[in-house]
Automatic annotation (TrEMBL):
<dbReference type="InterPro" id="IPR052048">
    <property type="entry name" value="ST_Response_Regulator"/>
</dbReference>
<feature type="domain" description="Response regulatory">
    <location>
        <begin position="5"/>
        <end position="121"/>
    </location>
</feature>
<keyword id="KW-0597">Phosphoprotein</keyword>
<dbReference type="Pfam" id="PF00072">
    <property type="entry name" value="Response_reg"/>
</dbReference>
<protein>
    <submittedName>
        <fullName>Two-component system chemotaxis response regulator CheY</fullName>
    </submittedName>
</protein>
<dbReference type="InterPro" id="IPR001789">
    <property type="entry name" value="Sig_transdc_resp-reg_receiver"/>
</dbReference>
<dbReference type="GO" id="GO:0000160">
    <property type="term" value="P:phosphorelay signal transduction system"/>
</dbReference>
<dbReference type="InterPro" id="IPR011006">
    <property type="entry name" value="CheY-like_superfamily"/>
</dbReference>
<feature type="modified residue" description="4-aspartylphosphate">
    <location>
        <position position="54"/>
    </location>
</feature>
């Protein structure tokens, strides 16, 4: 089976580190980006299978990144999970309308992330 790639996009190094541990345990190769601009550059070179995406980041936020990702060649392929502290229904609806496949509330653990990956068909 070919390896699957997950890109973790979060401005918090600690969140990226914790997420990496969980996602690697699910059998994914992992790359990281600290903001949406860095993630977009990454995706133009290598399109990941799954993207864990933070909402609020400097340089380029998650929603802007997501809208731009979906316009790239093959940019509709990755499963995108927003990882956020946003709880407002209209914000979550906005993320789903922009092309997110699902969302995960922070803080999350391995069990929650595995269930979300399963829901979107990533595992």
């Amino acid at each position: 089976m070919s390896s699957r790639l997950c890109l973790i996009v979060d401005d918090s190094r600690i969140i990226r580190k914790v997420s990496r541990r969980i996602v690697e345990a699910l059998g994914f190769d992992v790359d990281e980006a600290a903001d949406g601009a860095e993630a977009l550059t990454f995706c133009t070179g290598a399109m990941p299978d799954v993207i864990l995406l933070d909402w609020n980041m400097p340089v380029m936020d998650g929603l802007t990144f997501l809208r731009r990702l979906r316009t790239l060649p093959d940019g509709g392929r990755p499963k995108v999970l927003f990882c956020t502290i946003e709880t407002a229904v209209d914000r979550i609806t906005e993320a789903l309308a922009a092309g997110a496949d699902d969302y995960v509330m922070k803080p999350f653990d391995g069990e929650i992330l595995h269930a979300k990956f399963a829901e979107v068909g990533a595992v």
